[in-house]
Write a structure and sequence with these properties.
Distance between the termini: 51 Å
Number of strands: 9
Structural class: alpha+beta
Radius of gyration: 26 Å
Strand content: over 45%
Oligomer: single chain
Length: 222
Amino acid sequence: MIANGLISKIVALVFIIFFHFDLSAQKATNYTRKKKIEFYELRGTNAFDAGAGTSILNGDLVDPIFEIYFHLGYKRYLFPHLNLNVSYNKFNLAYKDVYNEGFMSFDANLESTLMPHHRFSPFVFAGAGYNAANYFEQTAMKIQGGGGIEYMLVEGFGLKLYTDYNYVLSDELDGLIAGASDDTYFRIGFGFNYYFGGEKKKNRILKDQPSIINSNQILLDN
């Protein structure tokens, strides 16, 4: 009798533990689905982006001045927190009364959107690129990194403020080879992201989990 009672209690305890973990797993899964839907509704799997701002050189001469900078790019999200992007950048680098040269760069970055389910999100990125003077008279590889903030003005359209640091694998950027390190430059820009895509993935989630549609907890809980 005692043994049977003990076995019954153990079975009941195992059932309770299993039910608790199963319920927790379902809640975690539903939360993940909810966040993915929010991402696809607010942003998307692809984005075109553009920006304009200023650039400044850190090289071998003194008195660098701020010059113009333009940016065009494309992003492809691998998942909500991470995208791969490529861009074309046109900018000038200058020293006061001494040097002013036009450049372009072709950059590839991995970028992390830190809060992809929110209208406001910081982001950081890093990658490599190809730097060239106008008419490709001077070229060099480079590495870059940076970050910024984005605010989704409406669904699918976000404004952003960002900056990047570029380390050129050459000391000839400013036309003078001097010093112990290669030349670098900074860029600061203001622009926008235009998002599109993701409808098929969102609809697949909704189709696989029809209960999501009628669940106040999943769709309405903020």
